[in-house]
Design brief:
Blueprint lengths: L5 E2 L4 E4 L12 E4 L4 E2 L4 E3 L7 E4 L4 E2 L4 E2 L4 E2 L4 E2 L4 E2 L4 E2 L4 E2 L4 E2 L4 E2 L4 E2 L4 E2 L7 E4 L4 E5 L1 H6 L4 H15 L5 H11 L4 H11 L10
Parallel strand pairs: 1-4, 2-5, 3-6, 4-7, 5-8, 6-9, 7-10, 8-11, 9-12, 10-13, 11-14, 12-15, 13-16, 14-17, 16-18
Antiparallel strand pairs: 18-19
Helix pairs in contact: 2-3, 3-4
């Protein structure tokens, strides 16, 4: 654990993983700097030797949140009350989970996205969007977070256009990626989106 962390009553750090594949191996839970870990938060260490559960810097884990084994969380994220993150998940920088969100195992959330309260999801949520509902749906670009990150209005419009191709287009995810590369002006953010889409293992929410 790094410096400047605030850990409140009843929190459990590096708890044994709740994984039937765990047989007592030595593994790690690594926590960066300046995190707030509120009451009754549980963070499990990794399942196998050499594995790591990682919490970055400047995160706020609200009461009752649970981060399972081998999950990696970036910097400046918020996990709302009672949010549960299953094992082997990846969460980018600046992600906000509202209360009572459930992220199922082996999925990713891209940087700068927000997951609305009460949502459960089993596929990847790409960067810079607002997603939520039952079943989970695309609710537009996360302009508030993008503005806070200094992303220009012009690039925000390009990102919105990219996601129209992904979520409103009639083709496959592969087709949408090709269309983004062909039709949307390039930027580091657009590259981040296409890289995220190209590397999905769990699939992208709402896309077959």
């Amino acid at each position: 654990m790094g410096r400047g962390n605030k850990v409140h009553q009843g929190a459990v750090i590096a708890a044994l993983p709740q994984d039937f594949n765990f047989h007592g191996e030595k593994s790690e839970c690594i926590i960066g700097d300046n995190n707030v870990i509120r009451e009754n938060v549980v963070i499990n260490r990794a399942t196998h030797t050499g594995g790591k559960t990682v919490i970055g810097n400047g995160n706020f884990l609200m009461e009752g949140a649970h981060v399972s084994h081998d999950t990696k969380i970036g910097d400046n994220c918020v996990l709302g009350y009672g949010t549960k993150i299953a094992g082997d998940c990846e969460i980018g920088n600046g992600v906000i989970f509202s209360s009572s969100v459930i992220e199922n195992a082996g999925t990713r959330v891209g940087e700068g996205s927000m997951i609305q309260a009460g949502t459960t999801f089993s596929k990847d949520v790409p960067p810079y969007i607002v997603a939520g509902g039952k079943p989970i749906g695309y609710n537009g670009p996360n302009n508030t977070m993008m503005t806070a990150y200094g992303i220009s209005e012009k690039v925000q419009k390009h990102i919105a256009n990219a996601y129209r191709l992904v979520f409103n287009g009639q083709g496959s995810l592969f087709d949408a990626i090709l269309q983004i590369k062909d039709q949307v002006p390039d930027s580091p953010e657009i590259q981040n989106i296409t890289r995220f889409l190209e590397t999905t293992q769990a699939g992208i929410m709402t896309k077959l």
